[in-house]
Amino acid sequence: MSALAAPDAPPRWSERLRWTLSDASVIARTNLTHWVRNPAAVLNLTLYPIVMVVLFGYVLGSAMNVAGGGDYREFLMPGMFSQTMAMGVMTTMTVVSLQTARGVTDRYRSTPISRPGVVLGRAFADIVNSVLELLILLACGLVAGWSWHRGIGDALAAVGLLLLLRFALIWVGIYLGLALTPEAASAAWLPLLPLTMLANTFVSPALLPGWLGAIAEWNPLSATVATCRMLFGNPGWQGDSWAAEHALTLAIGWPLLITLVFLPLSARRYRRLGG
Fold first, then answer.
1. Residue 29, φ and ψ in degrees, nearest 5
2. Is the pLDDT reported for residue 49 higher than 80?
3. Whether the predicted pLDDT of 1 surpasses 50
4. Where does it localize (predicted)?
5. How high is the pLDDT of residue 11?
6. Contact, 250 vs 271, CB < 8 A?
7. pLDDT band at 12, cuts 50/70/90?
């Protein structure tokens, strides 16, 4: 297929920005409308957090102990919040891959729409979905006995870090979705799940073999989990490595680095489709 001509961008940067944001909002509303009209997707968003809390909090958590005698569900929930944000990359990747295979992306590219606006609209839609999913998961945690024990400002800061992680991983999902077939995208959970487990999500890295513990400490997910536990006032672990002592720095730095790498890669991959 020959490359489609890109629409001419406005000459002034302010006009280009307004054009991009306007088109991004249209694309986001379109994606959200399709999601609302898909009962299976809505049901999955509703049931997934409930199933995860019951499975890990009650079934597996009944055999878990926390150092210092803390409640395991208090320890678990920040990890569950972070893992859910990380696993959202699967949704992004699958949807983008399907849209590319079905020609939806080509139709966008053949119309006078800002090309950055298309991928940005996808990111906006996924962030809205993630906010809803996180709210449901927070409610499930409160029902299960979890709570935050510091001020509302710290709790909102933790939620902001969780969404920052999700926003960064959206660009990973967009890039992989543009690069992979739907079949390959649907199988990507196999390497993704161990990456979310090999962190401080469910157990302290100190309980892992030395080399696995080191990997877990430097996992970007671990930084977000550790910082959220601190901000929520939930029990956690205190390692003596640089990563453990600077969890807040890494919780901000890792998502920014991932975004700086994969956002331009996603935009360039989109521009080169069909070339």
1. -65, -40
2. no
3. no
4. Cell membrane; Membrane
5. 57
6. no
7. low
Instruction: Look at phi and psi of residue 69 and say left if phi exceeds 0, alpha if psi is from -120 to 50, else beta.
Output: left
- Predicted local confidence at residue 112, as pLDDT: 76
Q: What one-letter code names the amino acid at 244?
A: A
Q: Are 134 and 163 spatial neighbours (Cβ–Cβ below 8 Å)?
A: yes
Contact 258, 171 (CB under 8 A): yes
Cα separation, 160 vs 138, whole angstroms: 13
pTM summary value: 0.88
Both tokens of 156, joined, read 């909102």
For 127-250, strand residue ranges (E) read none
| Closest to 261 (Cα-Cα) out of 177, 171, 185, 184 | 171
DSSP for 108-145? HHTSS--HHHHHHHHHHHHHHHHHHHHHHHHHHHHHHT
Helix (H, G, I), strand (E, B) or coil at 57: helix
Contact 31, 123 (CB under 8 A): no
What is the model's pLDDT at position 36? 79
More confident residue, 254 or 273: 254
